[in-house]
Design goal:
Two copies of one chain form a homodimer.
Chain A (H helix, E strand, L loop, with lengths): L5 E8 L2 E3 L7 E2 L2 E6 L2 E7 L7 E8 L4 E4 L1 E6 L15 H16 L2 H17 L2 E8 L2 H11 L2 E8 L13 H12 L5 E3 L1 E3 L7 H14 L3 E5 L3 H11 L3 H7 L7 E5 L5 H9 L3 E4 L1 H6 L7 H6 L4 E3 L12 H16 L7 H15 L17 E4 L12 H7 L6 E6 L2 E5 L2 E2 L4 H15 L1 H6 L9
Parallel strand pairs in A: 1-6, 2-7, 8-9, 9-10, 10-11, 10-12, 12-13, 13-14, 14-15, 15-16
Antiparallel strand pairs in A: 1-4, 2-3, 4-5, 7-17, 17-18, 18-19, 19-20
Helix pairs in contact in A: 2-3, 2-14, 7-8, 11-12, 12-13
């Protein structure tokens, strides 16, 4: 008698799968079987032993299948300010545009709405997991939960009052609440989010490191983003931002340094020695005129470097595809060496590298049995993707967001044939337009005094 | 009795129109009336005096309308090699990949097919006019003519034999044939295309300047693209490429220098003094590790700088949108000044500046009465475009190709709601796939000897 066929929740049948595993990179005619949100089996279709049953099936013949992207750094809510104050420097942009806007408009509802808007864009560009640093982080977390994506969430902590935390001493209580609220959630993972060396005290960094250790979670912070930050910190402490953080004893493998643009040779060695993960945000750093993270040098020293979009107000796109595409080209240009950050390395940064840095390498970032079923289906049949000599090159150098056809996260169909299934796109966009009219936000910033707001 | 209403071929009704005219930048609820390929009237809908009739109407309420993009430098046919030999330096890439491939596969049919493929991608990303440098240029011209776009066409001339010109002395005859063939064509404009200082003799440049003057057309050439080129030219002539060209007496307002990456202070002054137009190709220069054209410096010296994609094999996208988006960010980064290349300036480069440099400023590049009706319609209703505080910022920093919904060139509907009307997309893509199988092109380059081909 035949063995009873195993039943799966979802079968993804056909297509060329780039697993991004080092030793099993590619499946030419793939079968992916999903159960309880995880990959139960994957391999060449013809190699499946026996028979299977699937409660539903996604036909992907002729498509490319890759892991869903991971966006290792963003601020979900401020997509509402996209396009305001462009072409300003970081400190002007923060002080004259973003912070006054947040002071005026940042409410829990606004955070939820802005987060929903960002999540729509992220889904349409293939992001399955994101790390968010925001005010009212629990409201962003609710939006992420509603979207079906995986989120690392951190309440943005400053040493001064913020829109969501009037007394800075409450910061860790807010984070503790997140930790408690989401400790059993399969997709939402809290972390400790510190804004930056120029806005946070040494005591705050030290307490963050201790608390994070006790909770078993990561600490993420903007570090060495601009020349101005480096000058401020050197003025205060006679140390670079990285040296200062190291002198505080807070740099370790659970510390994630976001940006890391302006680094001395010693800074780079410290980051390597302390096994600090670095998150590169090329578009944001370009657009704000901040500079360029020395990714090839850091990598050659053994530093793990991932990638994120930063916010829709400093990028102004939340597409991880565009981000990895630009990263690949940017470092070729800065080193005058086109072999730097080859296509597969750029793709790895946005997937498997990000997963490692964020502590998710056993969950997501590559496709293998036992991993969460987090994948995107790419349609390579449009003119920009043809001829398909090399799928890695095509994804990294030629693809558009529109080629990302479907996305599955933790086994759940999030987008199918460009239609988002988990969120009401039309309603969210309508609400955003309504908010824009009511708040008269454009008029608000055009009359705003230069140094109006300081955290 | 009422005056008889004027009849137009096409009315574009409603929407916010960015004309890119300096003194009449924006129309909030626009009406554009087109007759014989030209704009017969444009302005606020409510300001139209009396009544009009239109043979057909495009409803664009709620959309953005801007001039169609101009791609000031490309090689249409080699989209067939897209994704081959990525992550190689320019000279390796040319000698080991592109030139051997062209030697083996470059035929008139292949040029036509590759050009059609490129044109599909260009239409989908809003390019209405392009400047092509290619072999068998008349076959590329046929593809452009079939597509309904406007094309500057140049046969790529070398001092050595090429796939299409066995005896280099025939080069100007081929160009003369193009000039004669297209002298009365409304949309196809020949120019003299010289490959580069390291592949063309001084005599060739001088004859090109003379011939072009007699025909009243432009000369375009790659100049100072890589360190290697500069070293070769300095080795041969003890001059930089720009100094050498100037010593030949060929630099003038009708000379267009493509790339212009590696320039000395003296080179920049020469370009300014001779009123040479420069075409920036940021993605290609980044991807090949060539470097970065000093756009802000050139502009401050009064040099007119436009922008192009270069080919789909060194970019690997033909989207002018991506090109202008990257340019805007790249120069902010290189100067650490986010006010450099502001959104409207980046948009101008891809439209009105390119038109000026290519000698088309009375035809295309901005929207005004009497100009050719070359425009794109943008759908700003998707998550990445909302909220629409600032349409310039949104186009330059947030838009996707998919937001480009429709395109009109010389009054003809080229694409409507993402459907290309002038070319058979399905058939072309099928032919490309067939070519790819028959030619075994991927196997071909993987066995190719390093220094196989030299023009």
């Amino acid at each position: 008698m035949d063995q009873k066929p195993e039943t799966f929740d979802l079968a993804v049948v056909g297509g060329r799968c780039l697993t991004l595993q080092a030793d099993f990179p590619e499946i030419s005619d793939s079968l992916i079987l999903i159960k309880n949100g995880q990959i139960g089996w994957l391999g060449e279709k013809k190699d499946f032993p026996g028979r299977y049953r699937a409660n539903s099936t996604l036909q992907t013949s002729g498509k490319l299948i890759i892991p869903a992207f991971i966006n290792a750094h963003t601020h979900l809510s401020i997509s509402l300010y996209r396009g305001l104050g462009t072409d300003l420097k970081l400190h002007d942009w923060l002080r004259r545009v973003i912070w006054p806007l947040e002071k005026e408009f940042c409410t829990p509802d606004h955070v939820y709405l802005g987060s929903c808007l960002s999540l729509l864009e992220m889904i349409k560009s293939g992001t399955g997991t994101l790390a968010n640093m925001d005010f009212y982080a629990s409201h962003g977390a609710k939006a992420i939960d509603d979207s079906g994506l995986r989120g690392l969430i951190g309440e943005a902590l400053f040493s001064t009052p913020t829109p969501s935390i009037k007394d800075p001493r409450d910061g860790f209580n807010v984070t503790a609440d997140l930790v408690n609220q989401y400790k059993n959630h399969p997709l939402i993972h809290p972390y400790v989010a510190l804004h930056a060396p120029f806005t946070c005290s040494g005591e705050l960094y030290q307490e963050a490191a201790e608390q994070a250790k006790s909770w078993g979670i990561k600490v993420c912070s903007h570090v060495a983003e601009t020349v101005s930050e480096v000058e401020q910190i050197q003025g205060r402490y006679h140390l670079t931002p990285v040296e200062w953080l190291d002198s505080l004893g807070v740099l370790n493998p659970d510390f994630v340094a976001i940006h890391a643009v302006h680094l001395t040779g010693n800074d780079k060695e410290i980051l390597a020695k302390r096994h600090v993960g670095v998150i590169h945000n090329p578009h944001s750093n370009m657009m704000l005129g901040s500079g360029i993270c020395p990714v090839p040098e850091l990598t050659s020293l053994g530093v793990e470097v991932g990638i994120g979009t930063d916010s829709a107000s400093s990028n102004n796109s939340l597409s991880m595809l565009f981000e990895l595409q630009t990263a690949a080209k940017l470092h070729k240009m800065s080193t005058l060496d086109p072999s730097v950050l080859a296509a597969h390395q750029a793709l790895n940064m946005a997937t498997i590298k990000n997963a490692g840095i964020l502590g998710l390498s056993k969950i997501t970032g590559h496709l293998a049995k036992g991993m969460s079923a987090d994948l995107i289906v790419i349609d390579p049949s449009t003119a920009n993707m043809i001829p398909l000599h090399d799928p890695y090159a095509q994804i990294v150098y030629s693809m558009d967001n529109r080629n990302i056809e479907s996305m599955i996260v933790a086994g759940r169909m999030i987008m199918e044939k460009r239609k988002i299934l988990t969120m009401d796109e039309e309603l969210i966009l309508k609400e955003v337009k309504k908010w824009m009219k009511v708040s008269s936000v454009y008029d608000f910033i055009s009359i705003k005094d230069a140094a109006a707001t300081e955290y």
